[in-house]
Amino acid sequence: LEVTKDAKGFVLPIVKPGEWLILRYKDNADAKAVTARFEYNTATCDGCQAPEWLCKCKPDAEKK
Fold it and tell me: Based on the structure, what is the number of domains in the chain?
């Protein structure tokens, strides 16, 4: 998986719906890597209108 950077952000190949996207980031060569895992969901959130995998709405359990 090749990730490149352009003027707007990062560009990566299309991830199939339902698959996990796992990214590792390091500030520099000596830094400890930070791992981020996203379940890629192409649906749009009804609450915030963002893609589900970027949704900022609270999960139903936290709303109560």
Answer: 1
